[in-house]
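Structure first, sequence second, as always.
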């Protein structure tokens, strides 16, 4: 998983780099950048694998090691799945000529921030790490503005619809379903205080946005949205 590799490298690099290496943290712990002299850079080639998780345990940003089936890693993995699904939908959207690609990319970046927040349990982390991994304010409100913007352009919803409406729309519906699962994984972590409540709000609103955008994509591509029809029983 992307989050796992980044977190593991962030913990292990302090051991791999020599004392003379200069380390600079930028943006968030999920995106640390490490700068070394050219000579040191040549000597130390970082690898994608660390072997530190071979026994089924991995590290959080706090340095704490937990089993990989821990609820935090489950939430991290599902968030990663969500970002991948949005990336796939974005590729379909790009091929179809949609203009909302920059918004999907921004959401993917914010999901990295969601991961940073999850990987830093709020009940145990130091203040400086809590500050570095705080979720950006105003993100929920931005999603709500986007939802309202697209909803104004859509016909009224009068039936339950099935995931359909072309490749872009159907893939956005898939992302929406994964988003709902991500939210379910986050609920106990938010309840325990390990994840910021704003993260839970954002993921909840994101599923509404993905649903709305799926409908907008179908309309823009002039694709039919299939509606739910009750299947009548047949006599045996």
């Amino acid at each position: 998983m992307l989050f796992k590799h980044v977190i593991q490298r962030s913990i292990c690099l302090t051991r791999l780099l020599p004392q003379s290496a200069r380390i600079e943290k930028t943006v968030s712990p999920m995106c640390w950048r490490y700068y070394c002299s050219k000579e040191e850079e040549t000597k130390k080639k970082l690898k994608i694998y660390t072997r530190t998780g071979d026994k089924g345990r991995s590290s959080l940003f706090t340095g704490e090691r937990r089993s990989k089936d821990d609820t935090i890693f489950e939430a991290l993995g599902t968030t990663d799945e969500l970002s991948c699904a949005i990336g796939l939908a974005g590729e379909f959207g790009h091929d179809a000529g949609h203009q909302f690609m920059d918004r999907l990319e921004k959401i993917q970046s914010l999901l990295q921030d969601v991961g940073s927040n999850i990987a830093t349990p709020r009940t145990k982390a130091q203040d400086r790490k809590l500050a570095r991994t705080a979720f950006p304010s105003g993100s929920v409100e931005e999603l709500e503005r986007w939802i309202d913007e697209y909803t104004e352009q859509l016909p009224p919803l009068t039936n339950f619809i099935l995931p359909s409406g072309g490749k872009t729309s159907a893939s956005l519906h898939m992302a929406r379903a994964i988003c709902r699962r991500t939210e379910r994984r986050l609920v106990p972590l938010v309840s325990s205080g390990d994840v910021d409540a704003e993260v839970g709000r954002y993921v909840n609103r994101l599923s509404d946005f993905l649903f709305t955008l799926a409908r907008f994509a179908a309309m823009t591509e002039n694709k039919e949205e299939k509606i739910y029809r009750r299947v009548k029983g047949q006599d045996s």
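Margin note: The CA atoms of residues 140 and 205 lie 7 Å apart.
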